[in-house]
Design a protein that fits this description.
With 291 residues, this protein is of the alpha+beta class. The protein contains 9 helices and 13 strands. The longest helix is centred in the last third of the chain and has 14 residues, at 244-257.
Length: 291
């Protein structure tokens, strides 16, 4: 039984990808039972082949919990009814021998992390809820940094960190190969929060500035696998920093994505050198146009 067939059996309203503006091909869209009951907004997307799920408004979800809330099904009943394959777009990932090892973090953001995020124009609670951002304290080898998990679906496979101070270089420190399950340059950061469209940025903070639907490749360079994941979204916009080299790289990426179905645009920022420094009015215009 497929996910749409199960939803039909229990008479749960849904939309298939391609039939609704908020639902990607290969997904079913539901009204989220956590944040969108009776809203008629199909923000909760479930990938039909794998069961990976994410609500564009309140973040990644587990299929078992979704079906328990909607259909009152147990995990055993779900397993016996559904025929899912274990992986989706990431099925050809080259796995490393590493295991996930990350610095000690606080479960809640401490005041220095919150102050840094507020200074950059972010809501700390939203950063923690949607993007899973945590922080390190004064102990350990990476003190006073934002801890940024890198996820495939709802599973953390790698991480990077950002210093709270520009006087504490390097700004970014990422997991070493033996500390990550999947190389972080093989993951398109933020893809688990996207629907049918993406805005491709250089770094995580740029993606945060634009909001859910924005992704990043961890720099101006990108891997073949990141390119394939980008191409799986039918609407794509490249939003690199506002300087000549970055613009040339954005045009190159647009050309390489032209072999995939869909449309790719290049955004040239006007009010700041990167999305995190742009006028909120310009960011809102980008979201209205592409997301």
């Amino acid at each position: 039984m497929t996910i749409p067939e199960l939803l039909d059996e229990y008479r749960i309203p849904y939309r298939l990808g391609g039939t609704h503006k908020d639902v990607r091909l290969g997904y079913v869209g539901l009204c989220c039972p956590w944040c969108g009951v009776d809203s008629d907004k199909f923000f909760l997307g479930i990938e039909i082949d794998t069961g990976r799920a994410n609500c564009w408004q309140c973040g990644p979800k587990q299929l078992g919990k979704i079906l328990y809330k909607l259909c009152n099904l147990t995990y055993r009943e779900i397993s016996s009814k559904l025929n899912l394959r274990p992986t989706g777009v990431y099925q050809d990932h080259r796995r490393t021998k590493g295991i996930l090892v990350h610095p000690t973090t606080s479960k809640t953001l401490l005041e220095p992390h919150r102050a840094y995020l507020r200074h950059r124009g972010f809501d700390p609670d939203a950063m923690q809820r949607l993007w899973g951002v945590q922080g390190t304290n004064h102990l350990g080898k990476l003190p006073w940094r934002l801890f940024i998990p890198i996820r495939i679906g709802d599973r953390t496979v790698s991480w990077t960190t950002r210093s709270l101070s520009n006087d504490n270089p390097p700004k970014y420190v990422s997991a070493k190969p033996d500390q990550e399950i999947v190389p972080h340059k093989e993951v398109l950061y933020g893809a688990e929060l996207a629907r049918h469209a993406i805005v491709i940025c250089e770094g995580p903070i740029d993606a945060w500035a634009i909001g859910p639907g924005a992704v990043c490749s961890f720099g101006l360079t990108y891997t073949e696998h990141q390119l394939k994941v980008m191409g799986s979204f039918p609407i794509r916009a490249v939003c690199f920093d506002n300087e000549p080299m970055a613009y040339r790289q954005a045009k190159k990426l647009q050309h390489q994505l032209s072999v995939f179905p869909g449309e790719t645009s290049v955004i040239r920022l006007e009010s700041g050198k990167d999305p995190a420094e742009c006028d909120p009015i310009e960011i809102e215009a980008i979201r209205r146009r592409f997301l």
